[in-house]
Amino acid sequence: MKAKEGLEKSSSKVLTEISFKEVFPLKEPYAYGAIAKDPETKGLKYIVIEPTLTEEEKKQLNKIVEILRETLDMDLKRITKKEDAEEYLRKAIKEVVKKYKIKLESLSKIEYYIIRDFIYYGKIDPLMHDHMIEDISCDGYNIPVYIWHREYESIPTNIVFEEKELDSFVVRLAYLAGKHISIANPILDASLPDGSRIQLTLGKEVTKRGSTFTIRRFRADPLTIVDLISFNTLTSEMAAWFWFIIEKKANILIGGGTASGKTTTLNSLSAFIPPDSKVITIEDTPELNLPHQNWIPSIARVGFGPSGSAAEITLFDLLKAAMRQRPDYIIVGEVRGAEAFTLFQAMATGHGGLSSIHADSPIAAINRLESEPMNIPRSLILTLNVIAMQTRVRIANKTARRLSHVVELIGMDPVSKEIVINDVYKWDPKLDKFLYSGRSILLERLMERYGLTEDKVNLELERRKTVLEWMVKIGVRRYDAVGKIVREYYMDPERIYEKAKLGLSA
C-alpha cells in the first residue's frame, strides 16, 4: 500500500492508464517499479516510475547540469563513499541555484535526477536497485531495455535510449568500470564497482542497431543451500549427501544450460567445505561468495592494447598460480578451455575440486571435457566423482530449477572403454519428486577409505539432514548465517544436532 501511495505521488497519470500486476519501491520516495500488462502486446512489461518534470523544470535541470559540467572541480568517482559524493553534489547544486538565481518548484526532484546521472547509472539506476533483476540489456537505440527477472524472466521495460544518448551511456559505463571504449576498440568486457559484469559495444562497427550493453548483476546476498531446499531445487537428503562427500574432498561438476542456476548451486554447495580449509575460487565473472575466512577469490583480467591480449590474465594463469598456493579446495566458476586440464590434474593430486560446465546431460558433459579445447583424457576424467545436472523447468506456470540427475563416475568398462556411471538421484518431472536409486558407490568407497561402517555413515547423513531441515524451518538463509551453523557443526556436531532436533520437534 505504501509503495502504491508513493507511486501515485510520483506519477498519477501513468497509474490511471495502466493496470499494474505488482507495484514496489526501488528508491523511495522517487523511484518505483511495477509489473504491468502491455495493452499493445498483451505481454508483461516492467515499468519504471520516476518524478514527472514540467517543461520548465526540464529546462532548469538542463541548465544546472550544463553549469555543473563546466564548474565541478572534482572527479566524483574518486570519492569512495557514495554518501559523501551525494553530499558534495547537493552542495554544488545549491550553490549553482543560488549563484544563478534559478527558481525551482522542487529542488529535491532536480537533485534526484542529477545525482542519478552524475554518480549512479542514469536511466537504468532504478533497475540496479531491484534484487529480483539478474540481467539488464540494451540491444540498440530506440529499442526497449530488457531485463531478466527471477520470477517473470525476460521482459521489456519502458526505458528507451536515443542513439547519441546510448553512445554516451556506454562510454560512461566503461568509465565507471575504469576502462576505455572507442570506435577503434568497440568491444569491452569489464566489471562495475559493485561486482556486476558488463559487456559493451560502441556504435555500429560491430552491432548494426547501434551501441549495446549487457549487465550481469552481482548478488551481494547469494542464494544458499537453505534457499535451494526451500525452492525444491534439491531435497535435504540430497544436500546432506553432498555435505558429506564434499567434506571428504569429492570432486564435483555441476552441469546445465544457460540460466539453469549452475553457479548458484555451485556457490551454495561450497558452504559445506570445512571452515579451516584453504579455498581458492577462480572466475572470469565474480559470482561466487563464500563464508570462509581462508578464501582467495581470483578473477581473470581482460587484456589491454589493440589486440586485447597485453597483460591479460586468464583462468589458466590463475589456476597455475593457485596450484602453487597449496589449496585444500579449488573452485572454478565454469570450465571451458585449457584451464580444465590443470583443474583435473589438481583433482588427481588430492585437491578437492568443484566447477560447472555448460552441458545438458552427464554424457554430454563428459563429451565436452574430452573435446576441443579442453581435451581431458578419459583416464583423467575419472578423477571426477560426481556430475550433477541442473535444469530450468516450468512448474504450475512458474519457472523453477531442479537438480535433475546426480551421477557418480565409477570406472571404465574394460571392453568398450566407456566411462561407467551410477545414478544416485533422479528427478521425476511427473511427480516433481526426487528418487534415490538405493546405492551410492562413492559412499561405499569413502567408507572403505576412512574405515567407516554403513550404520555410522547413515546416522551422520540423517544428522546433517536434520540440521538442514532445522535451518529451513527457522529461516536461516543468509550465506554468512548458514556458514556459521555449518562451521559450528564441524566444531561440535552433537550440540548442533541436538539443538536442531529440538527445534524441529517444537
Write out key terms for the chains shown.
single chain; 506 residues; nine-stranded mixed β-sheet; six-stranded antiparallel β-sheet; 16 helices
Question: What features would you describe in this structure?
Answer:
- With 506 residues, the protein is an alpha/beta fold.
- It has a domain at 225-441: P-loop containing nucleotide triphosphate hydrolases (Rossmann fold).
- It is 38% helix and 24% strand.
- The chain has helices at residues 2-17, 55-71, 82-99, 107-118, 163-176, 225-230, 236-247, 262-269, 315-323, 339-348, 362-370, 378-381, 441-450, 454-474, 479-491, 493-505, and strands at residues 20-27, 31-37, 44-49, 133-138, 144-149, 153-160, 187-191, 197-201, 212-216, 252-256, 279-283, 295-299, 329-332, 352-358, 386-395, 398-412, 419-428, 433-436.
- It has a 9-stranded mixed β-sheet with strand order 12-11-13-14-10-15-16-17-18, with helices on both faces. The chain has a 6-stranded antiparallel β-sheet with strand order 6-5-4-9-8-7, covered by helices on one side. A 3-stranded antiparallel β-sheet has the order 1-2-3.
- Strand 4 and strand 5 (144-149) form a beta hairpin.
- Helix 7 crosses helix 14.
- 34% of the residues are buried.
- The model has no long low-confidence stretch (mean pLDDT 92).
The name of the CATH superfamily of one domain reads P-loop containing nucleotide triphosphate hydrolases
Shape: elongated
Mean pLDDT: 92
How far apart the termini lie comes to 35 Å
- The total count of strands amounts to 18
Structure classification = alpha/beta
The CATH topology of one domain turns out to be Rossmann fold
CATH architecture of one domain: 3-Layer(aba) Sandwich
* Fraction of helical residues: 25-40%
Rg over CA atoms: 26 Å
Give a short account of the largest sheet.
9 strands, mixed
- Unreliable residue stretches: none
What is the helix tally?
16
What is the strand content?
15-25%
Strand order of the largest sheet: 12-11-13-14-10-15-16-17-18
